[in-house]
Design goal:
By secondary structure, the chain is α/β, with parallel strands linked by helices. The longest helix has 20 residues, at 251-270. It contains 13 helices and 12 strands. The strands form 2 sheets. A 7-stranded mixed β-sheet has the order 1-7-6-5-4-2-3, with helices on both faces. The protein has a 5-stranded mixed β-sheet with strand order 8-9-12-11-10, covered by helices on one side. Helix 1 (4-10) packs antiparallel against helix 3. It is globular and about 70 Å long. It has helices at 4-10, 36-42, 56-69, 80-91, 106-115, 160-169, 182-185, 219-232, 238-248, 251-270, 309-315, 345-350, 367-381, and strands at 73-77, 97-101, 122-126, 142-148, 173-177, 195-199, 213-217, 275-279, 298-303, 320-321, 331-333, 357-361. Helix 5 links the parallel strand 2 (97-101) and strand 3 (122-126). The chain binds pyridoxal-5'-phosphate. Pyridoxal-5'-phosphate is lined by residues 79-81, 105, 107, 148, 152, 177, 179-180, 199, 201, 211, 213, 324, 339.
Length: 383
């Protein structure tokens, strides 16, 4: 098996098509039927259709992502939420109960808190940092535990081995959203997770120009998630497949720069008057840091009450005030006004999301320029 850096560039190294050195965009919704013998020889379904997620671009991307994750199989989806919903809906049914770390990405919480209950799927929010409390949340119907590798938006690291041990001891499926870590910084399958999920819109794509998701797992679980995703219509389109494959080719080059820049900005922020708290794993003394090769480009910081978060967001010049994350450019956002806006004020408070919290997706610009931009915006926010 080649090194992940080589896999990121070449995937399975499929035969070149007409000599093109990159996989072309297969801009076809449907494909001519192959004879059964021909299909078997090529290892493909004789009926190929974009929604079925069995076109050449989709299949090759799935193989590349499975290799990167060290999983048996992987499948691409139309968004991170398509991947998360497919994984949960293919594992759970009416009457089941799941445990979910709190806080996690607001869209995932919205799905679990507000949509799955209508299908008869119940949940209990758990404190990821307190494994001893998880057993108390189990019911006879509990079937799944969901966590994030580095949780959104407070960048909390939890004992991921405790999660997989707990899941195995209680016959639960373990799912992990590893969007903030990427396979360059964490390989959850090696820790015993059953299903790894990504919003590929973020670091895997890396350029804020596509929307996609990934489910990586065993063949059986990936197929089940894919069947659910196909039924709900969440397949990835041909252009996004191309862009995602292109983005993945530089993942191993981009991630260390995100890691370094975020750690440097976090160190600088921690010394600034007006900044009450900084959340980045590089500053934490968490014993779980050793699981990660790097801590990624996501950080959070809390402006103290003397500063105006809205003014900070309006004052940045190099960074952009925008939702989403994981691209080469630095973005800043207020979680209480974006990713967690759909939650009630009580749900936000329980998730530790204050109005002064700013989440930063640190890009790969020159760090001095970023620091200068943050310095002027913090100064203006306190004016
Ligand atoms: N998971 C995490 C950690 C996220 O931050 C996001 C989006 O911000 C998602 C999942 C959802 O991804 P998408 O917007 O691609 O559906």
């Amino acid at each position: 098996m080649p090194h992940p850096n080589t896999t990121a560039v070449h995937g399975t190294h499929p035969p070149l098509i007409d000599g093109a050195v990159v996989q072309p965009i297969f801009q076809a919704a449907t494909y001519a039927f192959l004879e059964p013998d021909d299909a078997a020889e090529r290892g493909v379904d004789p009926v190929r259709y974009t929604r079925y997620t069995n076109t050449p671009g989709q299949v090759e991307l799935g193989r590349k992502l499975a290799m990167l994750e060290g999983a048996e199989a992987a499948c691409v989806t139309a968004s991170g939420m398509a991947a998360i919903s497919a994984a949960l809906l293919s594992t759970l049914q009416a009457g089941d109960h799941m445990l979910i770390q709190n806080p996690v990405y607001g869209g995932t919480l919205d799905l679990v808190l507000n949509h799955l209950p209508r299908l008869g799927i119940k949940h209990t929010l758990i404190d990821g940092s307190d494994p001893a409390s998880w057993a108390g949340a189990l019911t006879r119907e509990t079937k799944l535990i969901h966590v994030e590798a580095i949780s959104n938006p407070l960048m909390q690291l939890i004992d991921l081995r405790a999660v997989t041990d707990f899941a195995k001891a209680n016959s639960l499926t373990s799912t992990i959203d590893a969007t903030f870590a990427t396979p360059m910084n964490l390989r959850p399958i090696e820790l015993g997770f059953d299903i790894v999920l990504h919003s590929a819109t973020k670091y895997l794509g890396g350029h804020s120009d596509l929307c996609a998701g990934v489910v990586a797992s065993t063949h059986e679980r990936t197929d089940a998630a894919m069947r659910t995703m196909v039924a709900f219509g969440g397949s990835l389109d041909a252009n996004s497949c191309f862009l995602l494959d292109r983005g993945l080719k530089t993942l191993h080059v981009r991630m260390p720069r995100h890691d370094e820049n975020a750690a440097a900005l976090a160190r600088w922020l921690a010394d600034q008057p007006g900044v009450a708290k900084v959340h980045h794993a590089s500053l934490s003394d968490s014993p779980h840091k050793a699981l990660f090769a790097g801590f990624g480009g996501m950080l959070g910081f809390e402006l103290d009450p003397s500063a105006d978060a809205g003014k900070f967001l309006r004052s940045v010049r190099l960074a952009t005030h925008a939702a989403s994350l994981g691209g080469v450019e630095t973005l800043v956002v207020s979680p209480s006004r974006s990713s967690h806006a759909k939650l009630t004020a009580e749900e936000r408070a329980a998730a530790g999301v204050s109005d002064g919290l700013i989440r930063v997706s640190v890009g790969i610009e020159q760090i001095d320029d970023l620091i200068a931009d943050f310095a002027q915006a913090i100064a203006l926010s306190r004016g």
